[in-house]
Each structure stands twice: as C-alpha cells, then as structure tokens.
Design goal:
Belongs to the G-protein coupled receptor 1 family. The chain is mainly alpha-helical. It is built from twelve helices and two strands. The protein is globular, with a radius of gyration of 22 Å.
C-alpha cells in the first residue's frame, strides 16, 4: 500500500517561487533582472576579451581572473531560464530532470569558482612570499593543469548528488523557496530517507568550500606576515594593494554561500525572506561585482578596458591594434 501511495503522489514537477506578494510587480522585477544579467554578462565578457587581445595580460593573475569570469558566466546561464521564466512568463514549474540538471551545474560551478579563488590566493602568496621563483612556479602549462583539476574536482564531487536524488520518490508539495534548484532544498522534498544525501552534501561542502576558505585564510596569514616584515611602509602598502581585489571577491563569494548553506541545513525557523534574499545575493552579486571590483582596483586592467572602448567607438570593426602590441610587464608586481 505504501508503494502505491508513493507512486500516486510522486510529482513530475517542482514549483519554483518568485517574490511572494509582489506578483503585480513581476514585469518591473523582470526588467531589473534583465539589466543585472546584461551588466553581468557584459562585464565578464569584457574581462575575457581584454585578457585575450592583450599579451601584457597573459599573466597568472589575469588568467585566473579569466577563469573566474568563465565560471561566473556559466552560473548566470544556469540560472537565467528559471528566474526570468518566473518573472516574465509566470512559469513556475520545472521538471525533476531539469531541476537535477540545474542544481548540478550551479553547485559544480560554485565549487569550481571556490577552487579558482584558492588559485588566485596561491598566486598572491607566491608573488609576495617567493617573488624570485614566481615565473618558474606559475608557468602557463602548470596553470592549465590547475584549471583542469578545478573543473574535474567540481564535476566529480557534485555528480553523485543528482544521481542520488533521482532514486527518491517525491510525494510532498514540492514547492521550492527559490527561483532555481539547490540540493539542500530539493532533497528535503523527498518522502524517502535522505540521510545519505544529507551526509554526503555536508561532507562535500566541508571538504571543498570549507577547506578552500581555510587555505585562503592561511595563505593571507603568510602574506601579512611577509608584508609586515618589509621595512618600508610604502612597499608594504603596495604589496597589500595587489590583494585587496581578491579579498573583496573572496568575501562576496564565501559569506553568502556559507550563510545560505547553514540556514538551509540548520535554520529550520529562519525567515523565508532571509533565505530568499541570500539566495539571490549568493548567485547574482559575486558574478556581477567580480569584474567591477577588479576593474576598479587594477589600474593595469582599467586602462586597457578604457582603450578597448575608445578603440571600438573609433573603429568598430577592429578590436586589435596598439593594445595587442605591448610587451608583457614585469612579474610579479610586488616590490622585492
């Protein structure tokens, strides 16, 4: 009898949630999200174009920034269909398979982004703490292998999650509290024992996001220790300025991500509005702010972005020219 009931009540779809009580304003909200996505995609695309056409930016720091931009574009592409579908077409339904696919891409790309942030911290660590070996340690072939390991790690760790979810029966209301699918929330919709998913998901988060954030913290402890040992205050400030952009991006990524994960797992009485706001901050703010933060903090990058727009406005048919003729600058950009 239990099997029959499970079969009868197993739903073929999940229901996504927009902003409760604001249905009349969905058109204006959709315009806001379209604007955010347009800025997000444009900003990260400009980073990729600038890095590609400027030989002087073919350096580890900017290559890692390009990896971050690709990851951010992937996360935005994974979430755009369901978020805009709700606010533009009031389409709340998503099939189980589509939901599992979406949560796979969201979580795997977030793990890849965490890995890239760790690589960027390692780049700053080597540049400041061991500048004489910087060029020999961070070679282009080695950077390519690091990027491949980041992708393989993210995919390998997340693949079991949707496979485990497909084994369950879903006989509840299946109304999700976000405009997209997250593993922490989808597994709670199952009417089966989700102990395996819960333990594996928590372990995966601790061994990836938790470990990455801990290693980034230790790398900055070593960086600050090295910087404080530098005699000149000017040199100390110059060295620290190269880390400000990365620190801002790390905080923008880990604080909402960890907060949302904790609330979903342990905050049973938490406000739905808090979950909702953190959910959008978690997925939209880091990809939106990453190119802006680096453009503001890196004069080297900002100058080339300005040159790109001047070049495009003066001759739209050409993106190359003087910008691509510059010789690479000295590495690392840290005073010895």
């Amino acid at each position: 009898m239990s099997t029959v009931n499970d079969t009868n009540f197993n739903s073929a779809v999940f229901l996504l949630t927009g902003i409760p009580g604001k249905e009349d304003a969905y058109l204006w909200i959709s315009i806001l999200f379209c604007l955010i996505y347009a800025i997000l995609i444009a900003g990260n695309s400009v980073i990729l174009i600038i890095t590609k056409i400027n030989p002087s930016l073919h350096e580890p720091m900017y290559i890692f920034l390009s990896m971050l931009a690709i990851t951010d574009l992937g996360i935005s592409i994974a979430t755009v269909p369901t978020i805009l579908g709700i606010y533009l077409f009031n389409s709340r339904e998503i099939s189980l398979d589509a939901c599992f696919a979406q949560l796979f891409f969201i979580h795997s790309l977030q793990l890849i982004e965490s890995s890239v942030l760790l690589l960027m911290a390692f780049d700053r660590f080597v540049a400041i703490c061991n500048p004489l070996r910087y060029a020999s340690i961070l070679t282009l072939p080695r950077i390519a292998k690091m990027g491949l390991v980041c992708v393989l790690r993210g995919v390998a760790i997340i693949v079991p999650l949707p496979l485990l979810l497909k084994r369950y029966q879903y006989c509840r209301a299946n109304v999700l509290s976000h405009s997209y699918c997250l593993h922490q929330e989808v597994m709670k919709m199952a009417c089966s024992d989700i102990t395996v998913n819960s333990i594996y998901g928590l372990s995966a988060s601790l061994l990836t996001l938790g470990l990455d954030s801990l290693l980034i913290f230790f790398s900055y402890v070593m960086i600050f220790k090295t910087v404080l040992s530098v005699a000149s205050k000017v040199e100390s400030l110059t060295a620290l300025k190269t880390c400000i952009s990365h620190l801002c991006i790390v905080l923008l990524f880990y604080i909402p991500e960890i907060s949302l994960s904790v609330i979903h797992r342990f905050g049973k009485g938490s406000s739905h509005l808090l979950q909702f706001v953190l959910g959008y901050i978690n997925l939209l703010v880091p990809p939106l702010m990453n190119p802006i933060v680096y453009s503001m903090k890196s004069k080297h990058l900002r100058t080339r972005i300005i040159r790109l727009f001047i070049k495009v406005s003066s001759s739209p048919g050409s993106l190359t020219g003087d910008m691509g003729d510059e010789k690479p600058g000295p590495q690392p950009p840290i005073p010895s």
